[in-house]
Each structure stands twice: as structure tokens, then as C-alpha cells.
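User: Predict the complex with dinuclear copper ion.
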Amino acid sequence: MIGKFSLWPEVASSFALEVDALYVFILVTSLVFGVGVFAAVVYFFVKYKRKSHDEIPEEIEGNTPLEIIWSIIPLGIALIMFFWGVVLFFKISTPPAESLNFYLVGKQWMWKVQHPSGKREINELHIPLGQPIKLTITSEDVIHSFYVPAFRSKMDAVPGRYTTSWFTPTKVGEYHIFCAEYCGLDHSVMAGRVVVMEPVEYEHWLKHGSAPTAVAPDETPEAAGARLFQEQRCNTCHQSNGMLAPMLTGVFGHEVKLQNGQTVVADETYVRESIVNPLAKIVAGYQPLMPPYQGQVSEDQLTQLIAYIKSLAK
Ligand code: CUA
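Assistant: Here is the predicted structure with dinuclear copper ion placed in the model:
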């Protein structure tokens, strides 16, 4: 579960234990050989220490049976690792035919998901328990890597190419998503969560959208908007260095220059449109990078975000 520290990630996918078994096998083998070699070094170091200055050591010829043994046994162990790894690799890279196909796009610095039903989400992946999930992955900008330790699943998101990954979640819960490929300034916060739900709950979630975030009764719209601004990761672009997206301080109520040469006043309508359909009016000097948030935030939440952006102009 998120928030708990442990040395070993949780086991929450069908092949997680098999990956662990191979990993432990390689770890233990390396440990046994490492300790053995080190012990032999120490032993010979003491045993063959020169005792006097004129001591001439006895010449040792080769020992063919010994050399054959120490070649064959490690070769056998290495081949076990190889074939075990190959079998597991093919299993992990071959999604079953009945998999649910999700699309996943990485971009600086968020994960965008589209469900088979068309539903979209950002930095969250809701999936039903016990169902093989296939991800078709790509990137909009640089190489990212979609990593869910609890599933023992990691796959690069490469611009201009589709990669695939699959897993069957075996345990209801929430698990970390990380980006495992350095991708720029906010690589370390390019994270999210997978939510594994009972199939019935997943169906319900698909129909009724995300459970409304609990709002404290005395939370002002500005405070709720500020919280949403972080939760939806607006801050990764709109509060960093202004290279990817315009800073929003002092914007509300003022004129904004657009890419097409026109100007608009940043009022409620403009801000709302820029959230749900950001490509409609792009600010001069910026690229059309922002994903549409249509359907991802409720009308209430839009009002709260607008209230927050308004408060930034005071
Ligand atoms: Cu995306 Cu690191």
C-alpha cells in the first residue's frame, strides 16, 4: 500500500512472484559464489604466505578434472539463469488475447491513460481485479518509463513508437506508479497510482467517474482549487519555470496575447475553456502541449480551479 516503507515491494500481479523467484535465485547464487571466492582468497592468503626469505614455493601444474568441474558447473548455473529468464521474458511480453487494452501516453511530466471504454484519466490508472490488462504505451516528448513495482512491471515510453506491457492485478489496493527514466526537471514527481478495484466497483467507477474528492465543509473554493491544482498536476507546468506553460500569477482579469495575434481577456469563460479544451486559444509563445481536461474535472471542480486562478491575480 502507498505510504508504507518496505524493503520488498508488494506482490500484486500474477507474475510478480515468478520475477521475485528468479531474482532471489540470481541473488543467492551471486552471494554463494561471492562469499566462496572471497573465503578462498583469504584461506590461500594465509596458507601460502611466504614464511622465510629464501623459500622457493613448489611448482603447481594444472589439474584437468578440477578445471572441467569449475567450468561445467558455473556454465550450467548461467544457462539455468538464461533459460529461466527467457521463459519469463516471453511470458511478460505476450499479453493474453482476452486482455483489456489501455492506452498510456507519457509526457513531461504526467501519465495520460485512456480506458477501452474511452474514459480518460491522468496520473491514475483504475483497473479491475483479476483481468489481464494490456498497455499500449508511447510518449509525446522524451523517453519515459512506466514502472509499477508492485506488479514487477516496467516499460519504456518512447516517442514515435508503441511499446506494450501487461499484467493481471491479483490484489485490490493502491500501488505507486513511477517514471523510471530520467526525463527532465520534474522526473522525480512524474508519479501516480494504480487503483485495483473489484470488477463491479470498476464498472461503477467507469459510469459515475471518480469518487468526488472529500471536501472539508469549511474549505473555500480557492483552497479547494489550490488542492486540485496540485492533484491534477497543473503545477508541474504552470508553476515551474514558465518554459512549458504560462505562469498564472496576475493573469486573471488581464489581457492575454494569443498565438494567432488576437488578444482575449482572461475571464472565467476563457480560463474554463483553457482547462477543458486548451488547444482552442493558445497563448503566444507556447506550444499546444496541454492535454484536455474535458470530463476529468467536474463542473464544481472547474469553478474551484477558476476561483484559485482568480485568487492568484490579487
Ligand atoms: Cu518521465 Cu522520468
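DSSP finds seven helices and twelve strands in the chain.
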